[in-house]
Amino acid sequence: MTSLPAIGSLRDGAVRAIRAADLDIKTLLAQETARRWSERTLSLRSPLDTTVPDRPGRPEKPELIPPRQMPKRALTTDKGQIALLHAIAHIELNAVDLALDIVARFATEPVPNSFFDGWMKVAFEEAKHFRMVRDRLRQLGADYGDLPAHDGLWQAAHDTRNDLTARLAVVPLILEARGLDVTPALQAKMREAGDLESAAVLDVIYEDEKGHVAVGAKWFRFLCAPEERPGRGISSLGQSQFSRSAKGSIQRYRPCGSRPDAIFLSLDDCLCEYLTETCRNGTGKALLTLTVSNQPHQDGQNRTRWG
Prior knowledge:
Blueprint: H1 10-19, H2 23-38, H3 78-105, H4 113-139, H5 152-159, H6 164-192, H7 196-224, H8 241-249, H9 269-278, E1 290-292, E2 304-306
Antiparallel strand pairs: 1-2
């Protein structure tokens, strides 16, 4: 049985998991910290907590290369199936650290404990996802680390390390929401290629990710609510990597009705204003905007869509 380090508090457990380079320890520690926090046997933080690192712990492999240098392979081949699963495993591993980082880095923010409940549940599920995808890779004779990967997801965390509202806008509401859009197409391709086992893994991930986006939306609205101007303070981000990552990470969020099972965010003006204001390129032209669907969703509420 894997021996885990002592956990002094929620923040301490989250930081120790982030720092862990052994991925079995990282995922087990993330889930054990989540369990103890849910049982209320951990305090939120302690003066003795380990400091939050700038980068998460990682094994020697995979090699990290620029996104544009990532090789493309057809999903119809064995190598293509492995490459796709490897990319998904890398995304899920980063998602573990991103969920833990939002807990550890922002543990002193004036938010209720339910904020940390939500994000530790996300961390628990992301750890589960990583292990599921890694197990599937091993069934196919491969493993995580066999192929190169890129560092774009963690860069989004680094660029929003001083702004919780920006973190919530970028990670769950852009990056994870985009994942919801692309997953059904990937599942269909896997089934067409006869890889039903991998498609079943994505079934679990897809259902859980809906809840992760909802957690992000809930707390983004919470942080915006007290502000007279929902986007106040975002000018400090300026022409940062945050703006570029938003531009490059999402092209369009499906409009209302295009896929009934998708998560659509109830339109709060703060989300529309925040992302529109933030994603400007210095010329006043919005790189990303949100508009309201003219058609109400089945629950009667208008929904946002990307444009």
